[in-house]
Each structure stands twice: as C-alpha cells, then as structure tokens.
Request: fold
Amino acid sequence: MKFRAFLTDDGVHLLDKRIIPALEKIGRISHMYLTRDHAFFLHNLLAADGLHSVAQFRQQYLFHDYRISSQNDDRIAFSIDLTLLRRALRSILAIYAESRNPASVTTLQIKLVKKLPHHSTQPSPFLTFEAKGYKSAVVHDVPISKPLSRADVQELHLALESAQEMPITLVKSPELSSLQNFVDRMKNLGDVMGISVSKHGDLHMQISNTLITVGAEFRKLMVLGEKADAHVEDRGLSAQRRMEIAETRGDALSVQVNVKNFNKCLQYSLSKPDCAYFGIAPLKDSLVVIFQFFLPGTRQTDKSISLHCRLPALDPGSS
Reply:
C-alpha cells in the first residue's frame, strides 16, 4: 500500500483557508479516501444517524505527480484528525512563504509512511508532509488510523455511492448568509425543522414549539431537474397551505430534520461556494444540500470539486 503526491499551490491554500475550516465544523474526525482519480473527505457515512458529508476533489485539483497503489484496486482509506491536518498545512505554508523568491524551489510532498512513535515499540501509520524551501525544510507527521481493510473500504465505497444519489428536483438556495442568519435566530425555538421543496421553485422552512411557529418561504427559485408550473388558483393561499396542496399533486416533498445538523451543514459556507441547492430524496428519507463552485471568472460549474451534505429525515412523531 503506497501513496505519494505533491500538493499544488492552489490545493494547499484551498484546503487550509476554505475546505478544512468548513469540514471541522461538521466534525473533527473524518475518513480520507483516496482512489486513482479522486480524493474524498467523508463524515459519518458508515453511521445510520447523523449528518453525512461528502467533499470530493479530482486528484489533479489538489496534487501533481500523484501515485497510489494498493491491492484493493488502488483504493486507500483511513481516519484523520482534521485539526492536526490543518496544523500540518500551516507549518508547510510557513515554509512556502519564504519561497516567494523566484530563485527558490519549494516542493510540498505528502505521503503515507510507517514510523516508530516516541515511547512505542510498534510502528504506526502517519500522513507525512515534507516542505523544502530555499533556506529551510520541515517534516510534519499527522497520525492516522490503521488503513481500512479491503472489506471496510468496500463498505465505505458503497456508502459513498449511496450518498451520491441525488434528488430528482433541486432548488437554488437563497443567499447563504441570510439563510444562516435565519437558522441562527430560530435554532433555539426547537430541535426540529420542517423543510419543503417544490417543483415550482419554492423552499419553505418552519420551526415550532408549544407556544409559537416561525417559518420562512423563498419563492420562484431556480430549479434543476423535474419542474412544474405553479397553479393560478393557489395564489392568495398561505405558504403552508400552498405547500400541502403541492404535495398532494406530487409537486413537492417535505421532511423534518435536526436543527443542529442543519446548522452544521450550513457551515460549508465557510468554503465560499458560489451557490447551493436543496433537494429531498424521493423516499423522503433525507434532505440533500449541494454546494456548487464556479470556474474563476465564469458561471460554469467547476466539476473538480463537489461538496454536499445529506441529513436523515426524522420520524414525524419525533417532533
């Protein structure tokens, strides 16, 4: 089992400044899953409950001279502490900063190694970073779990495939900052949030307790996938009633999700996506939130990076 690559300049800054700070809000421990073509950070995919998170990158987006081999179809997976990973990147950036002199050459290498830790007689696996600058060099070892077995990698891969199944209708989120502000203000009212998505481009959110019900509706949003025209006779109806009728027609779906998990999902805004989309799985078993990035200077989707969360739907009786 071998892995070695050199981090690109853009890859180091993307991970340090945008991706890992967002991922840490989801959870400090993540699976890192490497294949011939992609690198993934996966949260909670092997658990039945809780927020599932997938961050996927084409390997060329983060690395060059990328080499991976294993007896498991060149797939390697392990658990890693994201706080320690970011600390390693920071130490690398300190060396990288000195190399702004064009005459200097800096290599930022990452590789899997086994080393003998202090006060131990057994070697342990590490993800090692090596940076060589014009005047100095640094080696930073990040401890990782024992790489997953063939059976565990296959289980993780199947869970990833399941997590990547998308809803048939997605509506574009309103401004993420305003959405985050709404959730921050409302999260103390209850533990459960009702979310509805319609093929008309409507997104409805609602939190209730025994004393009050508070909601927000966003209408005429961009729709990807299956669409439907709004009915003229529904004008003038309340947002809740309009969504109920849309559900009976098969034009909308609703779920209830944990407010804390939903708030965690919105922390992906720290990665500075260009937009986000909401959708509900056809079986109404989860809410999917997709964060989209554009190629610099365009409105075209950057297919080298993909971030999304899947929130399991709660039993309606739990509210």
Summary: DSSP finds seven helices and 18 strands in the chain. The first strand starts at residue 2 and ends at 7. The CA atoms of residues 70 and 199 lie 45 Å apart.
